[in-house]
């Protein structure tokens, strides 16, 4: 697809959204913004819409619509303003756009990502929670509607780049031929060397101080607990049709090797680069061409050392919980993700200790597993279980 693309950036005001707009602005000859969405920070959304000449913005409610208009400069013609969750899904499926950047945080991004798949769009998927909650449903929609799926999460983008030439940007039903294992790298976050006993009084700012990447606060906490890597194992399972036992996690504190693919002949292919999300974003926007991203070249001599170690599951219990959830099935994965979202929100608001995050997740997964079997055939089923888990977790006194 080298033709001109009109892009909808969902979650435009976030870390991934900002990086996406930066890359798009570098290529006016082949990329333009069609629509932008945001949940808060309407002033920033207005600035972005003005600079990118977006035709459409999507906001959550009427109060946000008024704030957006108040921030809009007098005398400039305003974009069309669409309101609410349905408008978000409709915009993802809008015939006027070719490409959808799914960069909303959390399961809240699932309906719009699914709508983009059903509309057969090129989807740049940053929102990993959508795959964790509804991987089967989402991949089926990609397959049945001829959508093009390009992983943006840096590890999955790296794996996609290292898979056999000609790997289709779609939804495989079995592992690529000749591939033995996927090796996902993880930085280990800010507490890699901390004694677990010392983590009780960790503050949100300490947990969000990631050593290598600058990201939104929810994913930053997930990186500290390594639940992020757990979500990524589940994400890799769906994206590459790979069973859990053929996905390995390696701690690599320098965040230079973004992930690797191991082949049957013993070859291991890696993708390297600066820890800057504009590289995978540019890859997705340009595929199969390579676009300039604004990322400075990697200076390996300056990096000096590249280290790897096996993660300690006692230190990072959330990683073990995610592997367990993947083996147990979709209900457990929905519970893992929803309970984590509530727990992280409570931690960031000062209502939950850092060390309680894995306990809350474990309790929610156990509770879900004790329920009589649930059917998860469609989006409504998934969202109903997600809501139920949030209510259960809230009843633990967190919400
Ligand atoms: P962020 O918190 O910086 O931004 C989130 C965006 O989603 C904002 O625009 C916000 O307004 C919007 N949003 C929040 N709640 C919403 C809701 N209920 N409905 C609609 N919109 C809502 O997050 P981020 O760091 O940019 O991450 C976005 C997604 O990309 C996450 O799923 C994350 O796991 C994934 N991701 C991020 C990075 C990164 O480097 N930041 C890397 C890999 C994957
Ligand atoms: Mg990642």
From TrEMBL:
Residue span, 1-deoxy-D-xylulose 5-phosphate reductoisomerase N-terminal domain: 7-135
Residues where 1-deoxy-D-xylulose 5-phosphate binds: 128, 154-155, 187, 210, 223, 228-229, 232
Named cofactor requirement(s): Mg(2+); Mn(2+)
Protein residues bound to Mn(2+): 153, 155, 232
Residues binding NADPH, per UniProt: 13-16, 127, 129, 216
The UniProt record lists the keyword Manganese: yes
Residue span(s) of domain 1-deoxy-D-xylulose 5-phosphate reductoisomerase C-terminal: 149-240
Pfam families assigned: DXP_redisom_C, DXP_reductoisom, DXPR_C
Keyword annotations: Isomerase, Isoprene biosynthesis, Magnesium, Manganese, Metal-binding, NADP, Oxidoreductase
Domain of life: Bacteria
Domain (DXP reductoisomerase C-terminal): residue spans on this chain: 272-391
One Gene Ontology biological process: isopentenyl diphosphate biosynthetic process, methylerythritol 4-phosphate pathway involved in terpenoid biosynthetic process
Matches recorded under InterPro entries: DXP_reductoisomerase, DXP_reductoisomerase_C, DXP_reductoisomerase_N, DXPR_C, DXPR_C_sf, NAD(P)-bd_dom_sf
Entry keyword annotation includes Hydrolase: no
GO molecular function, one term: manganese ion binding
Recorded metabolic or biological pathway in which this protein acts: Isoprenoid biosynthesis; isopentenyl diphosphate biosynthesis via DXP pathway; isopentenyl diphosphate from 1-deoxy-D-xylulose 5-phosphate: step 1/6
Annotated catalysed reactions: 2-C-methyl-D-erythritol 4-phosphate + NADP(+) = 1-deoxy-D-xylulose 5-phosphate + NADPH + H(+)
EC number(s) per entry: 1.1.1.267
General function of this protein: Catalyzes the NADPH-dependent rearrangement and reduction of 1-deoxy-D-xylulose-5-phosphate (DXP) to 2-C-methyl-D-erythritol 4-phosphate (MEP).
Family recorded in the similarity comment: Belongs to the DXR family.
HAMAP family for the chain: DXP_reductoisom
Name the UniProt record assigns to this protein: 1-deoxy-D-xylulose 5-phosphate reductoisomerase
Upper classification of the organism: Bacteria, Pseudomonadati, Pseudomonadota, Betaproteobacteria, Burkholderiales
Annotated gene: dxr
């Amino acid at each position: 697809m080298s033709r001109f693309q009109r892009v909808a950036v969902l979650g435009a005001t976030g870390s991934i959204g900002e990086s996406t707009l930066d890359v798009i602005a570098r290529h006016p000859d082949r990329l333009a913004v069609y629509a932008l969405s945001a949940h808060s920070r309407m002033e920033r959304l207005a600035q972005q819409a003005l600079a990118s000449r977006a035709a459409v913005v999507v906001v959550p409610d009427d109060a946000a619509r008024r704030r957006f208009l108040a921030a809009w400069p007098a005398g400039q013609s305003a974009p069309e303003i669409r309101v609410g969750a349905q408008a978000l899904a409709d915009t993802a499926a809008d015939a006027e756009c070719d490409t959808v950047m799914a960069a909303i945080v959390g399961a809240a991004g699932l309906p719009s990502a699914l709508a983009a798949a059903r509309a057969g769009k090129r989807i740049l998927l940053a929102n990993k929670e959508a795959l964790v909650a509804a991987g089967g449903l989402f991949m089926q929609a990609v397959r049945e509607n001829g959508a093009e799926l390009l992983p943006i999460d840096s590890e999955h983008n790296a794996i996609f780049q290292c898979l056999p030439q000609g790997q289709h940007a779609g939804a495989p039903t079995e592992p690529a031929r000749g591939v033995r294992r996927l090796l996902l790298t993880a930085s280990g976050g800010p507490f890699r060397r901390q004694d677990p006993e010392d983590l009780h009084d960790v503050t949100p700012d300490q947990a969000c101080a990631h050593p290598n990447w600058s990201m939104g606060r929810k994913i930053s906490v997930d990186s500290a607990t390594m639940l992020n890597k757990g979500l990524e194992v589940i994400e890799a399972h769906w994206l590459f049709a790979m069973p859990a036992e053929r996905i390995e996690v390696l701690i690599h504190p320098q965040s230079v090797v973004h992930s690797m693919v191991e082949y049957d002949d013993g070859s291991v292919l890696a993708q390297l680069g600066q820890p800057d999300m504009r590289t995978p974003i540019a890859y997705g926007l340009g595929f199969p061409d390579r676009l300039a991203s604004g990322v400075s070249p990697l200076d390996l001599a300056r990096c000096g050392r590249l280290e790897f170690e096996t993660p300690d599951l006692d230190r990072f219990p959330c990683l073990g919980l995610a592997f367990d959830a993947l083996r147990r099935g979709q209900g457990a994965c929905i519970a893992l993700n929803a309970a984590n979202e509530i727990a992280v929100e409570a931690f960031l608001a000062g209502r939950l200790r850092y060390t309680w995050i894995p306990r809350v997740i474990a309790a929610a997964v156990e509770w879900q597993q004790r329920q009589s079997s649930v059917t998860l055939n469609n989006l409504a089923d998934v969202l109903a279980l997600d809501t139920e888990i949030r209510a259960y977790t809230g009843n633990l006194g967190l919400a």
